[in-house]
Amino acid sequence: MLTTPSQRPHRGAAYQVPFDIAELAFDEAVSLAADTGVISGDAGPLLETVVDMLDELERPDEHFDCIQVAGTNGKTSTARFCAAILAGEGLHAALYTSPQLVRYPERMEVDGRVVSDAEFAHGVSAALEAGRRVNARRAEAGEMSYTITPFDLLTVAALVIFAERAIDVAVLEVGLGGRWDATSATDPVAVAVTGIGLDHMRILGDTLAQIAAEKAAVIKPGRAVVLGEGTHEPSVQQVMEDRCDACSVTPVVSSHELLHEPASLGDETVFRCSTPRATYEARLLKPVYQAQNAACAICLSEAYLERPLDADRLARSLLSCPTPGRFDVVRTDPFALVDACHNPQSCEVFVSALDELAPHIEDRPTLLVAALADKDVAGILDVLLPAFPRVAVTQTSSDRAVPAHELARQVAAALDRAGRPGSDLVAAYPAVADALEALGGLGLPLVAAGTITLAGEVAGILRP
């Protein structure tokens, strides 16, 4: 049986890195965090790598509670709402999300603030030294050295930073899947699974049931479990129920009732959420789809605290919680909005929100689209293209980006199948900065969508 937060033995225990480290400069830490900074080895990537690194660091994650949020869609927003709610309840709360929109430190927040560049570099330095020490010991024992991925490093770095800041609880967003994700090297006291969609299919599987099974692995005996509304698809629901039964846990299934839908940007979404302990009426200055994520976060926060939430504090926390990259206006003249939708399901949610606020397609901005090769690119285009009168194509800096000329070919073919004129494809640009300069020079309002990296690059260039 779970203890309450105040009863857990680690509360208030001080933490410091148990060995000397060579402090990296911030730019060096960022280089290691980039895809090219991976530490090569003969074994892995493996979850055991992160476990051994945390053991080497004398388990910084055991100095606070961990809450884990898995899923395909809505997990970042759910994690953000949960951290904000817990902070509103008076807890010293941290947040770990991925990927960043612009800068790597954005992945780590304490009390709603991004960690400093110095803290980020220190955390990566500690994680790097832990990895070196683990691999040196393995080499001495004649064992294969671990491959340490950038996500391994960043996860361990975040946990070190959070422990040194003496937080009460960290909300950890799963990066990929759940079963082997680096965040699963911790022992969360509560977990949530949000929506399930086709994502990272080369790694997780090509059916909803296969992907759901990887994400459902975060459900384990003794943990509080919340299932979001995006797990209600029959094959996914069956996987979740089977996993809960196997672990002898009874999940809380979140739900909400819409009371008011926004009529324009800046208008409120009002919804009601009933949990096993209380019923809450809440407001968001966000599109309707975020009510589902907020409801999941309410259930998760309440399950962790094992008591009802304070209604007034909840209201303030939800209204003030930012969701960067989610229906995010980054420039007003000419208008520019970014959204981090990156698979067909999240694109459908985004388009649904757009339909509510701008019902006439011919009046909408130009779509600037980019995509990553390991996503369902055809499915993304099938959802986004019909929702916009014109489309421009670009390529992000990710090494997984679909080349602009190839994506333009797919867009042109999709427009042709739909009987739309070729002029609806404005242009293809080899880089995001080129696209923004050209479209801005024409004074064209735009919506950037299709991948998280596009939302981040556009926000980084245009946000004041």
Describe this structure in words.
An eight-stranded mixed beta sheet has the order 4-3-2-5-1-6-7-8, sandwiched between helices. A six-stranded mixed beta sheet has the order 12-13-17-14-15-16, sandwiched between helices. The chain has 464 residues and is an alpha/beta fold. The protein has helices spanning 26-33, 47-56, 75-88, 117-140, 150-164, 201-204, 208-216, 234-247, 290-305, 311-320, 344-357, 377-384, 404-417, 432-441, 452-462; strands spanning 65-70, 93-96, 108-110, 113-114, 169-173, 190-193, 224-227, 252-253, 257-260, 269-274, 279-284, 328-332, 335-338, 366-369, 391-393, 425-428, 446-449. The chain starts with 25 loop residues before the first helix and ends with a helix. Helix 1 (26-33) crosses helix 4 (117-140), helix 3 packs across helix 9 and helix 4 packs across helix 5.
Please give the count of helices.
Answer: 15
For the biggest β-sheet, the strand order reads 4-3-2-5-1-6-7-8
- SSE class: alpha/beta
Strand content: 15-25%
Choose one word for the global shape.
globular
Separation of the first and last Cα atoms:
49 Å
Topology:
Blueprint (H helix, E strand, L loop, with lengths): L25 H8 L13 H10 L8 E6 L4 H14 L4 E4 L11 E3 L2 E2 L2 H24 L9 H15 L4 E5 L16 E4 L7 H4 L3 H9 L7 E4 L6 H14 L4 E2 L3 E4 L8 E6 L4 E6 L5 H16 L5 H10 L7 E5 L2 E4 L5 H14 L8 E4 L7 H8 L6 E3 L10 H14 L7 E4 L3 H10 L4 E4 L2 H11 L2
Parallel strand pairs: 1-5, 1-6, 2-5, 6-7, 7-8, 13-17, 14-15, 14-17, 15-16
Antiparallel strand pairs: 2-3, 3-4, 9-10, 10-11, 12-13
Helix pairs in contact: 1-4, 2-4, 2-5, 3-9, 3-10, 4-5, 7-8, 11-12
